[in-house]
Amino acid sequence: MSDTEFTHEYWMQHALTLAQRAWDEGEVPVGAVLVQDNRVIGEGWNRPIGRHDPTAHAEIMALRQGGMVLQNYRLLNTTLYVTLEPCIMCAGAMVHSRIGTLVFGARDAKTGAVGSLMNVPAHPGMNHHMQVIEGVLAPSCSALLSDFFRVRRLEKKAQKEASRKD
């Protein structure tokens, strides 16, 4: 492994690739990469539909894999890159896992729990606080989600029109 320091944009681009994988599987396109010492120790993309598991968010999948790699639930000195602001469940899991830094792309006004709807990691009662960096490749992260939901709406409209013809 080289001593090259990869940028936040580099790792977020990797997370975007994973988000595309979620889209390809019919899931909401969110991707996450867990990094320690400049190497990937966990990856995830949204999979709740395919796994029949409401907890199978990209962040949870990456944290689980990181725990297995480190053989520890405490993911100290790690950075989690995620394309969308985490929800309450994922933000809580990040606090419990004690990641060092969260880097996210797009904000989520409806369910974001790192500043939009509420701010779980910054709550003064939390036993662990992490650094938060937001807005990395935000336009690309937002566009992927917007495109996904636009395509989904068009597909549903086409299905309705097709069923009317039957």
TrEMBL record:
Cofactors demanded by this protein: Zn(2+)
GO biological process annotation, one example: tRNA wobble adenosine to inosine editing
Catalytic residues (positions): 59
Enzyme nomenclature, EC number: 3.5.4.33
PROSITE patterns for this protein: CYT_DCMP_DEAMINASES_1 (PS00903), CYT_DCMP_DEAMINASES_2 (PS51747)
Keywords: Hydrolase, Metal-binding, tRNA processing, Zinc
Record note on cofactor: Binds 1 zinc ion per subunit.
Entries under InterPro entries matching the protein: APOBEC/CMP_deaminase_Zn-bd, CMP_dCMP_dom, Cytidine_deaminase-like, tRNA_aden_deaminase
Positions with a binding annotation for Zn(2+): 57, 87, 90
EC top class, as a word: hydrolase
Reaction(s) catalysed (UniProt annotation): adenosine(34) in tRNA + H2O + H(+) = inosine(34) in tRNA + NH4(+)
Pfam families (UniProt xref): dCMP_cyt_deam_1
Keyword Aminoacyl-tRNA synthetase found: no
Primary role: Catalyzes the deamination of adenosine to inosine at the wobble position 34 of tRNA(Arg2).
Subunit-level organization: Homodimer.
PANTHER family for this protein: CYTOSINE DEAMINASE FAMILY MEMBER, TRNA-SPECIFIC ADENOSINE DEAMINASE
Family: Belongs to the cytidine and deoxycytidylate deaminase family. ADAT2 subfamily.
HAMAP family documented for this protein: tRNA_aden_deaminase (MF_00972)
Protein name: tRNA-specific adenosine deaminase
